[in-house]
Design a protein that fits this description.
The complex is a heterodimer of chains A (about 100) and B (about 475). Chain A is of the alpha+beta class and about 100 residues long. Chain A contains three helices and six strands. Classes of the chains: A alpha+beta (about 100), B alpha+beta (about 475). Chains A and B meet through strand 3, strand 4 and strand 5 of A and helix 10, strand 16 and strand 18 of B.
Amino acid sequence: MTKLAELASLIRSKNAGPFELTIDIMFDDARVYERVKRSGALSREVIARSYGVAVDAVRFFESDSALAIKASIPRPIIQGDIGDTDGHGGQQYAPLMDIEIG
Amino acid sequence: MLPFKDKEVRVLAGTAVMGSGFLESSFNEGLRREPHFIGCDAGSTDPGPHYLGAGEAAFSRDAVKRDMRLLLLGARRLKIPLLIGSAGTSGGDVHLDWAYGILKEIAAEESLQFSLALIHAEQKKDYLKRRLAEGRIKPLLNAPHFDAGTIDRSERIVGMMGAEPFVRALDAGADVVLAGRASDTAIYAAIPVHCGFPEGLAWHAAKILECGTGAVVSRKTPDCMMATIRRDHCIVEPLDPTLECTPQSVAAHALYENGDPFKLTECAGTLDITNAKYEVEGDRSVRITRSAFIHAKNYTVKLEGAEFAGYQNVIIGGVRDPYIIGQIDDWIARLREKIRTRVSNVHADKLKPADYAIGIRIYGKNGVMGALEPVKEISSHEICLVIEITAPTQELANSIASMTRHQALHLPIEQWSGMMTTMACPYNPAYLKRGPIYRFNVNHVVEPDDPYEMFPMEMVKIGA
């Protein structure tokens, strides 16, 4: 087992507009990307559980040309509204770093 | 603009957002490639709702003027169009006026003469109410509730224009187009699409250009980007010789700040890059093929709006006592109650509990992720409290903050006896007046009769 952070070249989060948060998990090696993709450790369900949203609310993508796995979820609070903790959505990826990849 | 005889259209993108800068050497390299036009995006919702609500720009006037001067001088020297979209960050009328002021100042300083098109993007409330009543305003994903009351409450609402208003401005003889809120990509796709180049390639190149050097392997600073669009492919190329694009870096750029990495919605349809192919071209460039653009049945214009959400006052404080840190949730709950009691003692005539909000962020615990933070046990030897008061007036927010400071300074714990001071204040005064704050309140599209009705244009002779 290896932690996702040790395999990915970049894990990042960012607003996709004021109403959506998007998370990119990127790789610089096609074999590593395939390994993570096939492991099933990243899925719509895992994202839903990590961010406390309904499975249906998660958009999940695998981009073979970019060697990247991507998920988008509704922002818990609209960007900049009272109670928002992260106006640009840039520091919401850390919990994914420890996901174990088989 | 037509007929366009060249086999390719060369596009120079100034930078990702005007005011963030670019290297003069890269820009000059771009000019040497004889671009057919220069584009630059100047705005976004990325900096937050304040700029749309308060009518301010996110970058300083001097920073915008520096970029605009170089772009304007380059475009006038080559006698090619300069297209600027989303003027002044949010692209409302006040933002457009601000950018127009800078542009006129540069033109006077440099003795420039040209035809300018100003395209407005701020929407009239009556127009939006009419379209709403007609059922022609529709929600996008995760949209908040929107009704006539939302329109009334909004400080301003802008429409995000497509490519067509840019083309209309050029057809009217504009050398320079300064537009209010615009799709970032429309700035770059307008001319290639209008000149008959494949729409998929034109919009895909535009999507890469609008982020400047965002699509390179490792971006050092915001900088210029070049695209060449031909009949069956396009090529994207960074102009700084130390930067490179790879097939993966360009493919990966489609992920950035997009909810869907394959389909990007524009006014006239959707750029579909699911089957796009990326190949190495030369040392530092990438060749793209197979991008598609699928026309929508209805032309849609996205709205962005912001409304007033209250006045704020913020206190930043630190806690180092391990006893307090060990019971911080309980301590915060007691603090909230103390503040509420003081406010009802002092402001019972002016404020009901629902009229103001107390937000307390605990950095060192869950300040960044809030309720989503999976780590529940903390081992921090110090924590930072950011206490924010939101109230209907600045005076009330200040008043509650002053009570809050005093309560937080002296909120005892049972481990100690006697008068104690429980929070470290790094600033004096301890409060930061934040002024009015705003919230985004629209994530909808309008179905207009045509691409122009929401975007009136003025033609101005500069230096005449």
